[in-house]
């Protein structure tokens, strides 16, 4: 039986993550983004702005910009992914919003797998990304009292900080 299938049959074998973790999203050029693990949210959500849909070869793509750093407007990362769907999502205040849905790879705690993300503005929220229960089901158990089980974000070196400076 494959390793992941054993986990789904026995949740005690799943690795543990906390209520917040650092993840990578290589297809989007995001080395690290702090996520809130939200088992109350069905779908994951990413802060995105300047959304634009374009059609190429009969496929609809969503072009958007990302600010992966909390409370910062830099860096700004341009991204483009195929549109998977449009989904009506209720925000934390109960307001329904029709959001584009995209699919991308995520790296967390030594695992890499595809997840669906809704795109919306989250610049007023504490986290630029929510990792919902669909994304973590069968991959992890969540300890709501812990954080950063997958490790803390590596500190930026002086050279990294200089590259980010305008």
Question: Please, could you describe this protein's structure?
Answer:
The protein has 166 residues and is mainly beta. The protein has a single domain (22-143), classed as Cathepsin D, subunit A, domain 1 (Beta Barrel), CATH 2.40.70.10. It is 11% helix and 48% strand. The protein has helices at residues 3-9, 133-136, 158-164; strands spanning 16-18, 20-25, 30-38, 44-47, 49-56, 59-66, 77-82, 85-90, 96-108, 111-120, 129-132, 141-143.
Q: By CATH's scheme, which homologous superfamily applies?
A: Acid Proteases
CATH architecture: Beta Barrel
Q: What is the CATH class name? A: Mainly Beta
From the alpha carbons, calculate the radius of gyration and give it in angstroms. 16 Å
User: How many helices?
Assistant: 3
Biggest sheet: strand arrangement: 2-3-11-4-10-9-8
Outline the biggest β-sheet. 7 strands, mixed
Low-confidence stretches: 157-166
The third-level CATH topology is Cathepsin D, subunit A, domain 1
Task: Tell me the number of strands.
Answer: 12
Mean pLDDT: 86
Please trace the helix and strand order, writing H or E for each element: HEEEEEEEEEEEHEH
Tally of separate domains: 1
Which SSEs are present, and which pair or pack?
Layout: H1 3-9, E1 16-18, E2 20-25, E3 30-38, E4 44-47, E5 49-56, E6 59-66, E7 77-82, E8 85-90, E9 96-108, E10 111-120, E11 129-132, H2 133-136, E12 141-143, H3 158-164
Q: Keyphrases for this structure?
A:
166 residues; mainly beta; Cathepsin D, subunit A, domain 1; seven-stranded mixed sheet; three-stranded antiparallel sheet; 3 helices; 12 strands; 48% strand
């Amino acid at each position: 039986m494959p390793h992941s299938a054993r986990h789904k049959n026995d949740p005690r074998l799943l690795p543990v993550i906390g209520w917040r973790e650092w993840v990578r999203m290589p297809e989007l050029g995001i080395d690290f983004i702090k996520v809130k693990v939200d088992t109350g949210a069905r779908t994951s959500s990413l802060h995105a702005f300047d959304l634009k849909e374009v059609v190429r070869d009969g496929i609809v793509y969503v072009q958007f910009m990302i600010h992966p750093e909390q409370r910062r407007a830099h860096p700004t990362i341009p991204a483009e992914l195929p549109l998977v769907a449009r989904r009506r999502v209720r925000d934390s205040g109960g307001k329904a919003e029709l959001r584009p849905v995209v699919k991308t790879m995520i790296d967390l705690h030594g695992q890499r797998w595809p997840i669906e993300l809704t795109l919306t503005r989250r610049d007023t929220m504490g986290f630029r990304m929510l990792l919902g229960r669909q994304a973590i089901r069968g991959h992890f158990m969540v300890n709501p009292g812990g954080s950063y089980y997958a490790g803390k974000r590596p500190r930026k070196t002086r050279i990294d900080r200089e590259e980010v400076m305008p």
